[in-house]
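quick one: flavin-adenine dinucleotide bound model?
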Amino acid sequence: MRNQSGWTPAWRDVAPRDAYDIVIVGGGGHGLATAHYLAKMHGLTNVAVLEKGYIGSGNVGRNTTIIRSNYLLPGNTPFYEWSLKLWEGLEQDINYNAMVSQRGVLNLYHSDAQRDAYARRGNAMRIAGADAELLDRDAVRKMVPYLDFDNARFPVRGGLLQRRGGTVRHDAVAWGYARAADQRGVDIVQNCEVTGIRIEQGRVLGVETTRGFVAAKKVGLAAAGNSSRVAAMAGLRLPIESHVLQAFVSEGIKPLIDTVVTFGAGHFYISQSDKGGLVLGGDIDGYNSYAQRGNLGAVEHVLEEGMALMPMIGRLRVLRSWGGVMDMSMDGSPIIDRTPVAGLYLNAGWCYGGFKATPASGWCFAHTIATDEPHPFSAAYRLDRFATGRLIDEKGQGAQPNLQ
Ligand SMILES: Cc1cc2nc3c(=O)[nH]c(=O)nc-3n(C[C@H](O)[C@H](O)[C@H](O)COP(=O)(O)OP(=O)(O)OC[C@H]3O[C@@H](n4cnc5c(N)ncnc54)[C@H](O)[C@@H]3O)c2cc1C
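yep, here:
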C-alpha cells in the first residue's frame, strides 16, 4: 500500500575491516548460519562473512528446497534429525518468515527389495527419534492418486513417508540468517572474493581478497561447490569433485501436489511451489564442472523420469531451468572439521543434500570453530575418514560421486 517505498536494507552493506577474530569464506546458507550461531550460541561477533558474489547467488538460492531427515547410518541420523528440529524453530529463532512447510516427503518403492530397504531405513529413523511411515500401494494411491499406478513402466508398490519433511523457501533462509547475524554485529561483505589464504609456520593469518588482505585468527571455509578451489589456496587437496546439478520449474498450475514425491526407480523428485509451478530435479550432470549451467543430456533424463512417473505432466511447459555447482564427496557425506593448518576449518562435501543440512551445519561448524572440538552431532564428519577408511557411505555405492 506504500507503493514499495519505505523498505530498509535487511543487513548493512559494509566494506571489510582490516582484521577479525573469525572470517567465514562463502556467504551461502552454511556460511551465514555459521555466523549466526557463532554470535548467538558462542557470543563471538567479531566475525565477517566474505562472499564473492551476492547473498543467495550460490546453491542456497538454486536448490529445490527439500528438507528431511530420512537417513540410515548412525553418523548421519542424529545430525539430520537435529537439522530438522532446528528448521522447526527457525522462524522464531531468526524472526524471519522462511516459509517452512512440513508437507511431507514420500519416497516411492517399486520392488520387494526396495520395500525391505525402506523398512530398514524407517526403523533406523524411528530409533534416532525421526518420524517414518511405511505405506503400501493403496495408501500411496490415496495420497497421490495422480501417479501412474495402472500402466507404469516401474509399478509403484508403496512408499516411505516422512511427514515432518517438506520444503523451505530457500533464499529466505539466506536472507533471514544474514539479517539475524548482522543484527548481532557480524559483518556481511558481498562482492569480496577470497583469492588466497595467508599461512605462516602452519597457522592461518588471514585471507587475500579482491578488496585487500583481511587478517583473522580463525578462518572457516564454507564455499560449497568451490570448496576444492578455495582449499587449494591453503595447499589442501580435498576428496571432493564438483558437478553441476540442474533444476526445473514448470508454468504455474492449480494446486496439484501437496507433498514432495521422489521416484524410486530413478533419480527424480517433484513438488509444487506456492506460486503453482512444479519444481523438479534429478541427477547431476556426469562430468566435472564449475559452471553454473548444465547440459541437455541431464534435462532429457530428468524429464523422461518425470514422464515415467506422472505421464500427465507431459502437457506442461518448462518455464525455467538452472544449475548449481555441487561439492560431491567420495562417500556422499559431508565434512565439518579442523584442517591440518592451525586456525583453518572446513565445511564441505554436501553433495545433493546440503540445503536441508543448513541449520545443523551452521550449528556444528560454529561449535567446531569456537571450541576447536567436533560437535557430537557432526563427530563422524571428519576429514581423515578418507585416510582411515571410516567412510559414511549412505548409498553403499563406494567412491563414485557421480553415482551418489
Ligand atoms: C539444483 C539444485 C537442487 C538442490 N536441491 C536440494 C534439495 O532439495 N535439498 C537439499 O537439501 N539440498 C539441495 N541442493 C544442495 C544444496 O543447495 C547445497 O548443498 C547447499 O546449498 C550448499 O551450501 P551453501 O548454501 O552454503 O552453498 P552456496 O549457497 O553455494 O554458498 C557457497 C558460497 O561460497 C561463495 N564462494 C565460493 N568461492 C568463494 C571465494 N573464493 N570467496 C568468497 N566466496 C566464495 C559462493 O559464491 C557461494 O555464495 C540442491 C542444489 C542444487 C544446485
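DSSP finds nine helices and 18 strands in the chain.
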